[in-house]
Amino acid sequence: MTARKPSRKASRKSAEAPVEAPAEVAVETVAEPAADPIPAAAPAATATKAAPAKRARPKRADAGPPRPRQAGDGQGARPAPALDGADRGRLLAGDHHAPHDVLGAHPIPGGVLVRALRPFARTVTVLATGLRAELHDDGDGFFSGVLPVPQVPAYRLEVAYDDNTIEVEDPYRFWPAIGELDLHLIGEGRHEELWRALGAEPMVHQGVAGTRFTLWAPNARGVRITGDFNYWDGTGYPMRSLGSTGVWELFLPGVGEGALYKFDICRPDGSHTVRADPMARRAEVPPATASIVTAKHHEWQDADWMAHRGDRPVHEAPFSVYEVHLASWRPGLTYRQLAEQLPAYVKDLGFTHVELMPVSEHPFGGSWGYQVTGFYAPTSRLGTPDDFRFLVDALHRAGIGVIMDWVPAHFPRDDWALAEFDGRPLYEHADPQRAAHPDWGTLEFDYGRTEVRNFLVANATYWCEEFHIDGLRVDAVASMLYLDYSREDGQWSPNEFGGRENLDAVAFLQEMNATVYRRNPGVVTIAEESTAWDGVTRPTDSGGLGFGLKWNMGWMHDSLQYMAKEPIHRKYHHNEMTFSMVYAYSENYVLPISHDEVVHGKQALVTKMPGDWWQRRANHRAYLGFMWAHPGKQLLFMGQEFAQGAEWSEGHGPDWWLLDPSYGASGDHRGVRELVGDLNAVYGAVPALWQRDTSPEGFSWVDGGAAEDNVFAFLRYDADGSPLLAVSHFSPAVRTDYRLGVPETGTEGWVEVLNTDAARYGGGDVRNEEPLKAEAVPAHGRPCSISLTLPPLATVWFRPA
Fold first, then answer.
1. What is the pLDDT of residues 528-542, one digit of tens each?
2. What residues contact 517, with CB distance under 8 A and at least 6 apart?
3. 302-551: what CATH class?
4. Which CATH entry fits the domain spanning 553-800: 2.60.40.1180, 3.30.70.660, 2.60.40.420, 2.40.50.100?
5. pTM higher than 0.70, yes or no?
6. 475 catalytic residue (yes or no)
């Protein structure tokens, strides 16, 4: 992974200086009520979802001359009892766990005590039906007074600053806006919709529009909310601790969508750290790092896709994937602009799915999204969360599934994100040897902690449910599974049984897969797992990890190594192309030619090939034909569909200019792209190429040992036994009268259905024009055979006429 750059913190705005307020409490009557009455006591909220509220920031403009003060009504008022010094100090220090016990309105003998913490205010006045009471200035931003009323009224606060006067609701008059069931499930680590309970949720609570803020920070001594709505000074917004769950909560009336915020956390040692929300569903555009209050408004139009995407198990369905880095596919396009171009392009090429490199928010673009700081937020570089929903919706309406790269293996060390979040290791493992990822300078999650596992499991289903994602490709699974991954002796400790397996990670992956599949019919999970771990795609109830598919890294490495050899030397490496069939049915595989293979000195796919430009393109085309016919699903990274010669760079993306008709060699690249479209078209129409991908009965070698000829010939069968013959010839010579044994089913002859040497693809157009009649000449253990012409450096597919 590329080293990461630090990101700046959100700026803090200056606020007004405090002005001493009058000492007495002034009381006057007013004619109009300030708010609807509410009971003095009410049960705690039991639901976490409510109607979203629009953002309502107080205006900071000059409020004009102060209102003339009227005389009291004769009821009188008195100063409040002095605030306990310990409470006062803890509130100012930001380490109070129960601010609602001190702030807000509380019945006392002889009236109702109201206390507010409003730093930099000149005066604070309580407004209620028939009542206007200016509070006593206690210093340090505290204001208090005893109202001459028998019970807590519905009230608002009028807060006067040097240049402005505003009316606001008092956050400390509200009951918790999170239910007991939510807290119970969080404590157990079983809240499958965690995003509905934690984070910033616009809602109407006790009849008032605002935003509920909730945060899990069990080691914190105190937590305050800081944002653009309080000039990035959280002194007046301390949150309350909700028991032993480690959850902190505060409902802020008047704060709505678009508000910027962070959490000011008092660590166990009394120091402070300001952090972005781990559950934020929207974030600022990097390098800014604040979280943003958001709500969804997109109206989905993909009901038909969602209802039928699971009609056929993915391992028995056509599954051809175009891998995309959204930020560089067409640099500068937003999610909505991509929605106008990407679906049509992918559909024209015939791919069934796109795989998006990580979409979750990340501070450093050079990490390509693989070092995530905002696990619940689509990157704001390209638009809002609803904009991303719009893109997914457009792809679905074009008949294209959406797979997303998901990175639960590690996270970066940025001091505004997850690392030592509340002053101690929280999301990362407490053991430094277990926490530090040896390869990327990042931290590994503590999969054994129930709340951390819950954070990740809920995140997986969040993307599927909130954004209609059809699949999750899980990155770096091998680094999660092994305690000794990239570690030397003495740098790791064995598990409780003395082994090297990370049992916590195994349990997490099993829980994640079981939860995603149970909640989201039709979704597929895919493991990027590069070792021989047994049972990656075996169901969890049979002891497997529970993935639907696994990247076949062995096939990718072996086949690319073979293709890089000069044809004259390939006969010595013939087994590198056949070895994959030894284990082809041990898992449900995807054959990946991904971004990792065409970047950082590895060369583009066509550039890996030997020979001159014609031979390189011919090798490229023949290899794609071999890949599409091989058992397993296909994945191809953007740019490789038109034989881009340069490595991929996230800075400029694919070299689209190669397809411009004004470029002299554009036909060479257009020909390769046309081949990819035809590969996908034939692939989708011929069940033999995908229906029995995971069944040995779906494959049979005709000749896997023709090393001297650089030829690989095999048959694929559908569920009814109908065959397709695939012949790959990786030599630059033309071979005529080449005999191959075939099944007796092709009595009418065999016809070409695809030839990568066709002229329209840029080839030499060496063809088998007529149906090839099967002759009663035994070959390759079969009683019948055909005699064909093999084009140079080409793959040819045949079907019975």
1. 999 999 999 999 999
2. 523, 525, 546, 548
3. alpha beta
4. 2.60.40.1180
5. yes
6. yes
